[in-house]
Amino acid sequence: MTELDTGTDDLLARIEDGVAVLTLNRPERRNALSVPMLSAIARLLGQFEIDDDVGCVVLTGAGHAFCSGGDVKSMAAGILTSDESHRTPVSYDAAVHRQRVSQRETAGCLWSMPKPTIAVIGGPAAGAGLSLALACDLRYAAAGAILTTAFARVGFSGDYGGTWFLTRLVGTAKARELYFFSERITAETAEQLGIVNAVFAPESLEREALERARKLAAGPTIAYRYMKENLNRAIHGELGECLDMEAAHHIHTGTTADHREAVAAFVEHREPVFHQR
Prior knowledge:
- With 277 residues, the protein is an alpha/beta fold.
- The protein is built from 12 helices and 10 strands.
- The chain has a 7-stranded mixed β-sheet with strand order 1-2-3-4-5-7-10, sandwiched between helices. A 3-stranded mixed β-sheet has the order 6-8-9.
- Helix 6 packs across helix 7.
């Protein structure tokens, strides 16, 4: 296991068995987002995206929460610069630009990077915290964990892609209901709605999720890269375009050493050993 320097105590990071684990680390604030935390997430995701030693990325929270979203106490002080200690107001245009960059480099990267991403929801996930979880490819939650869009309760419209991700997971009518009313739902209800993939006992959640992450990291990462692109395009692409892209990716992955290894393993009745090439 390799511990990484994130540049802030608000975020912990490590690489273990090909899995990069990012831990939101403000348990006293239910891991509410901070500017240093978001900046560190963006920087590390950019590194993981091109690091061949990372095959899967996991996002989780310290303590008994996943992420409560934006730090409401800091919001009371107004829009902040990237240096929170100075609490210097910035212009509206600058604030919008910074928000756009942050969203693309965090939620946008989790969704688009050519590697599987997993959110491990051990406790409450709200607002932008929920949005970041929705940006991941897979979500596993602890029994009884509470999820909520939360934005209506604080007079916000929503950020970090939550409206886009949730609409595609549950459909437009249910997504609107969850945003307009900001109801709190349990992990079990979220599983029924298709928001989370599975629910586990709190004491076994991390083990179950990391077991799946390690399996993905040891899998055919080239195939996953193109598989994820196909699946992402399927959300908004035209059928003919998706069929053509699938054909190109399918033939390309058929030329890889991992494909040849998988075929040999099938014939020899053994598990394949992938080498990401």
